[in-house]
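Lab notebook page, bench 4
Experiment: in silico fold of construct C2
Operator: M.H.
Input chain length: 815 residues
Purpose: comparison with the prior construct
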Amino acid sequence: MRKTVLLSSCIALLPGYCWAAAEPPKALNESTVSWQGKNWQLIDEEGVFVCEPAAAGGRQVLPPPNRPAGEIISRRGWDTPVKCRLVDFVDCTQTDHGFEDDGKSRVLDLPGGKFRVTGAAKGFELTWFAYTVQTADRAGVPHLVVVETPNDRERYTTVSMTVPKGEPWSPPYAGQEAVKVNAMAISQEPLWYEPDVGLAVYTGRELPIDDKPFTFQYVFFPKTAKMRLIVSSSGWAKPHTPESGGAVSRIWVFEILDRLADRLPKIDPPNGRQRHVGLYATHPWYFLAHYGVPPHTPEQRRQSFENMCDLLAFCGMNLIEFNAINGSDRAGRAWYPGSYYKQLGADLLSELPPVAEPRGIDIVPVVTSITAPGKVEGSKPNQYGFSELSFQKHANPKADPRAFEHRPPDPLRQETQRWLIKHLVEIGKRCRQHKNVIGIGFRANGKIGTCYISGEDKSSGETKVYSAELMGYSPWNLSRFRAESKLPVPNESMEAYTWLKADPKRWDQWLDFRCRHTREFWIKARDAIRAIRPDWTLYVLTDLPSEVTGTNVDWPGADSPDAEKVTLDLLRAHGYDPRMFKKDKGILIQRVMMVDMERFFGKWGPPWGSNPERYRDYHEQEFLPDWFRTPAGSATELYHTYWEEAFHPAGEFGPDAKGFGLRTSTGMAKGRSFYRPATFTLRAGDTDTIAINGWQRPVMGHEHDLRRFCRAVRALPTLDRHTGVGQGLVAESKPLATTPADPKRWAARYGDRIAIINDRDEPADLTVKLDEPLPPGKQLRDLATGHVLIKAGSGNRDSFTIGMEEYDIRAIAVE
């Protein structure tokens, strides 16, 4: 447990200072600052992106950022900004720019002005409108799209980019779109050129409504002189009203003029092992598809990787986890040559690490959930050792749960373990020379495999979802358990399940049996990669328990007195008991937090749509982060649910007979609520690795404010525990004066660094009382903003005051 602190509100903000720029800027009004003799319009609420103020008035004028310029400077500090040039503007109340829709969009008077709103979709219906926007006609040069939308009700507004049909590649890659490629062979998608990125932003429900418009923005790398921008929405909103739908008033497209590599945030790392903040990519094809560059030659691919790594470093990130064995979340293809699986369109093991290393980015290749190789018939093993005995068996012999139509291999079988370890070793030998490859990983996915799964059974004509506790009842499983336990386990699988479940002691022995042998499996995997490089860590990227039905049906909810016990048994049913790894070195077990899932599945029928709030509540149980900690540290994956929209006019997986198809984007909550799972896992678990996952690039919409977040996280030392650290650190909160502590507003000392976390949805000005007076020659500096909180030789030496945003983290240096 951490040292408890109290919090108090401050009277006034302390002055900041300009830590990267040559002179302090001056706020002229809500949106404009004067800096180095010139006026600049702030585009975002961090002051990261700027442009020249519009010469004329009208709707083309950018609105003020979501916070006033003066507040941005005083609370966030001032770094050298990134200059942008406006290249196009769309007034969405008009029908120019090649406007097109499904016949259902309308212009409505909403709080804050006029907005074009998609049709009020119901259920899985998708409604949309589209414009064609101009770019700078320079392929691979980063751009910024800024979108104005209302915060008046629960809404879901997706803004996606697509290359218009027949549009040629911009210079310097003119004509590259005509190169003939086998799209499925290089990408596992039928369309390798046209689909690009998309971001879905949602409002309402637990997010405050203020009836004010706001802007969101994201970086994209256009391939062509024109891009098709599609605004879409489906029937997620509750309640459904005639005014429901995705809504946009205005759109701005900027060319980013400064090189992102020249505007990296200043990171003040501590001594010793560093924390990591980065992304986990389940579909690495997007390393090539979304950075404006063709994928045909090694030189082109290197430029794509440079664009991507420059963007991640610009955000402050230092980690990439990716599926080296891929196949849309299950093993089917490889991102390197020489594997059993056919190679996709790059050798990421040799091409990516040399690009990431000089940018300070570490790499972890991952084997996704494995499938059985070759043709399997009967009980005779095939050439890879797999037979009918190799698969997980449901307790009911008539049931046939699968993962995307694949029968899941049994993780306790030796052929399953050999097959996974073979690929871990194969990957390890190919990238052991790269010092920034810090480990090898595999995926243990409660829905898909390399553990016991909660599978979908479609054999009867209707889809049934079974709990993981019903899997793993083959005659081999039962006979092995019978021999070890000396229990008279029935031979028939359903009878055995019923008999084991009827007695809590027997059931505990059964789950313990599965988990002990799973641990032995993981230890063998660790030892195999450490035989190649002893400094490597085995990363086990868990997605446990299965979200359906594990977290939303089988788990009884946060208010249940049995919530903790059920949580443990759900994990153990998949074969993972976190208590067994507390002394195992060299294994980092990455915990998943499902994000946005309660929104996405809210419109679905049972079991997916049952108790949708539990998708989030399960992962915010206070005890969970520490369960997953091992001597190698604590890691958390923030898994943004794949935001799938069927019947999209620019489907990325090919059109149906009517020209529509499935399109997937990255979903995000409005504003700083994006950081809610991050501040939770930092506060409750002191996690030292955060990997953000999304079907597409999951930093979209937060390229500007991730910089300050990553500065803070990466400035903090890594510790096994807070116990004994920060003795006597006390703070007090005036709004909570009658309460001894607010556990969600927290501070602690790490030697010469102090961490402060506001894990609430409201900002706060917090006063922190030090454990001992600051020596006269020392100062306190906020490493996220550059603000000096206590100057050397002056001021109050016992406490300091700091302004915290909602869901915020700061790192303070004693120097």
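Observations: Residues 1-21, 721-740 have pLDDT under 50 and may be disordered. Residues 504-530 form the longest helix (27 residues).
Next step: discuss at group meeting.
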